[in-house]
Write a structure and sequence with these properties.
Length: 373
């Protein structure tokens, strides 16, 4: 393993049986096929270089930490190859320079664990012999695939628990930016809560960062001061969980199991695991089988709810898990009628949202405040 220092910086590992085999995505993660292109040639393991560009620090115990666990899974599966990475890649021209540096280092495959747009696309276009991946990307190329997780399903499941646990029915959400992952997360969470408490609401505060413990703590405090007794969010650290612990509230987290920062407040987490997916994509690249695809890892195979917290009653866990079991059996909770925050019908009665619509969700449902202007 080699760590490449970035030019400019801001300042759960489970390989399972899918590793080394074709990764099965039963609730098809395919959004749309990428443009047809022949497989890139095979690479000997001892000659291969696989690179990762991380949006945050590997010590965040959140999003970047989870992706780095996936990198380590690759290194363990293929000990002869070389993995390199850069932490806290900025959203600027420096990102392009970092990705070009990967190419100059001889990288055969490059993963960006966040969407970097043209900072990445321009580099990929100039390196057709390199396989690129963009997490949460939406612009496939002949040598660039995209991947993400169906987090809206475990968000719904934890929302059921939240609706049962909340005494006020006021749920708070600490948001990074008003982006599809935040809209789908808040909407799914509230829909789960309203399945057991129809009067539940979600108030959102946007802090314009993925990793800012001080801002996240301030947002969590403000939400509790406003009457919210259960918090959710999409941050890469434990700040609002610590606030909930101090204030006697509850919290649902993202990325990893970080209950030790608030054992009494911890309800669960939307846990991500990219190990098996990364190992499979590298296997394909080494074997000369890799072509770009657009994948969304399903609940149970890349994303899921974490084990329930110690203060979650058994009957609450059972009711939430009943919804999880239904989803795993093929049921979708995202069926109309669904109205937006202005009262307009967006999804007609009986119509079920597609995975593409869930992935690109960019409007709030009725009962969510703080995102739509």
């Amino acid at each position: 393993m080699t760590l490449i220092r970035p030019l400019s910086r801001r300042g759960f590992l489970n390989m399972g049986a899918a590793a080394g085999l074709g990764l099965m995505l039963p609730r098809t993660g395919l959004i749309q096929p990428a443009r047809a292109a022949g497989p890139l040639p095979a690479v000997a393991e001892e000659e291969a270089v696989i690179a990762w560009g991380y949006v945050g620090p590997t010590a965040d115990e959140g999003w970047t930490w989870a992706h780095d666990q996936g990198r380590q899974a690759v290194q363990n599966a293929y000990p002869k190859l070389k993995t390199i990475y850069v932490e806290s890649v900025p959203y600027s021209a420096d990102a392009s320079r970092i990705y070009r540096q990967f190419v100059s280092e001889g990288a055969h495959m490059v993963f960006a664990n966040s969407n970097y747009g043209d900072f990445l696309y321009d580099v990929a276009a100039r390196a057709p012999e390199v396989a690129f991946f963009e997490c949460d990307g939406r612009s496939p190329m002949d040598n660039l695939g995209t991947y993400y997780v169906q987090h809206w399903y475990p968000s719904y499941v934890t929302g059921v628990a939240a609706g049962l646990l909340s005494k006020t029915g006021k749920l708070g959400y600490v948001a990074s930016f008003p982006v599809p992952s935040v809209y789908s997360g808040t909407n799914a969470f509230l829909m789960g809560a309203r399945s057991v408490n129809p009067s539940a609401t979600v108030q959102t505060i946007v802090i314009n960062s993925w990793f800012d413990p001080q801002a996240a703590a301030q947002a969590g405090t403000a939400l509790i001061d406003n009457g919210c007794d259960l918090l959710f969010g999409i941050m890469d650290e434990a700040a609002y969980l610590q606030v909930a612990e101090q204030r006697g509230a509850k919290a649902v987290m993202w990325n990893t199991d970080i209950r030790r920062y608030g054992p009494n407040a911890y309800v669960s987490s939307i846990v991500v695991d990219f190990g098996a997916y990364y190992v499979e994509q590298v296997r394909r690249r080494l074997a000369g089988e890799w072509t770009p695809s657009q994948d969304i890892l399903p609940m149970g195979q890349g994303v899921d709810r974490d084990a329930w917290g110690q203060s979650v009653p058994a009957e609450v866990a059972a009711q939430a898990d009943a919804a999880r079991d239904k989803i795993l059996s093929g049921w979708s909770p995202f069926t109309g009628e669904i109205k937006d925050s202005k009262g307009n019908i967006r999804i007609a009665a009986g119509q079920t949202m597609t995975e593409t619509e869930l992935y690109n969700w960019d409007w709030s449902i009725e009962g969510v405040s703080g995102l739509d202007s």
